[in-house]
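Deliverable D4.2, example record:
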Amino acid sequence: MKSATITVKKNLHVPLPMDVYQRLKVVAEIIHRPVTAVARAAIREWLLARERETVKADIQRYASAVAGTDQDLDPLLEKAATEYLVREASQPWRKSGLLRRSRDVGYEGRAPRRRS
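Output generated by the structure prediction step:
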């Protein structure tokens, strides 16, 4: 027997400045979605961005607090990361965004061959 999942939604009345509403409406028309769906997605993305910023700030605070202690980054790991970043920076085809996701890279770090 399948169990039904109930999604609870709350309504939120948010008066928007006309320019913001017009921008949402333009995007909604372009992507063929209701303005409310675009607004919902924009709010969700904004919240995720705030959460990422919070996590980043927490990590920076922690790293500053433990810098130079025995909890600091392992020297071998730091060396490996630095070498990796230098190697990545020396490969312009990677920086160009041609290969953005790891799944786009073959086993030996090269782009997979395209089948015709």
